[in-house]
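Recall from the previous chapter that SMILES is a line notation for molecules. Here it describes zinc ion.
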Amino acid sequence: MAEITLTTLKDSKDLFLGSIPRVPQGHYVHFVMMRETESFPLFQTDGALNTINVRAGLSNAKTISRLVMFKRKQSTPERLAGRELLRSLGVISEDVKGTKCVYNAPKGGACKTCPDCIYYGYAIGEGAEKSKVYVDSAFSISPYDMSHHTFAFNAPWESGTMTNDEGVTKVSFGSQDHIVPQVFFPAIVTLRDPIYEGFLYVMGNILRADRYGAQDTRTGKVHNHLLAVVFSNGEIFSNLRFTQAIYDVLQEKQQWNEPLDRDNVLSVGQEVYLSLMKAEPVTKQKEWVGGDLQQMVSEVTALYQDEKKTADLIAKLDKATKSYANSSAKANE
Ligand SMILES: [Zn+2]
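With both inputs in hand, we obtain:
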């Protein structure tokens, strides 16, 4: 297996652990991003979009209603993107070939050794594995009022028209709220105690996942813009705090448009990230923003465009997660 070395990470080997530790070691890498809707996804429970009344900004004290993207609405598409890759490379399978690993089966079916099981966790009776990838609810920068649209849906007669042979016209009988394109959700995904291959796996999943929502028919396109990748010895600010700070700055700069402008949101997002980091009581070990970050994103993208390199990366990671699973099993004996 060839060593996969990215130019942007070449001098940063010391940021990564040599193996996946059984107990937390206080190493964190945060993927700070701006999730942007690019079609009409539904983040909902029981037919209604998820919303919550919260303070608009850190300084602006008025209360507004924001859309919420709960944890699983964010993590599921990312882990499924990873599982699809593992399956395509034969690392896991849903049938008898290779390591059988079934996702979310009611009676269990997790293999407990693959990169997905070890990184994103599973919970089946004894020996559940905690996720090493942390996500938290994300909130729209813009209020619910300017972030959704209600579409009425009609059921045409069999002929496909709205009026039948007797001249009876059907009226619309239902409506559904959809999130509109260009709604922004500031969001941080944190990976605990990263080994090199685990870092590239989680980052790859973030870059490759692009369809979010509930079931298949309820999903929509979401693009993840990375604003920063930062290694630290602790956790950092919450998604809500990040969102509120961005709201204040967009208002101050008079960049509040409907819909919000992507360039403004991304540049304010980076600026706010840098200022909030200054107030965090953690040691910042290394940080990528701006051009350096774009270079890293290009390199990781190129890695995943290369079938051979991707297979090498995943094989190494699978070896690391299997050896972690073995050592955990021994420790529990
Ligand atoms: Zn598995």
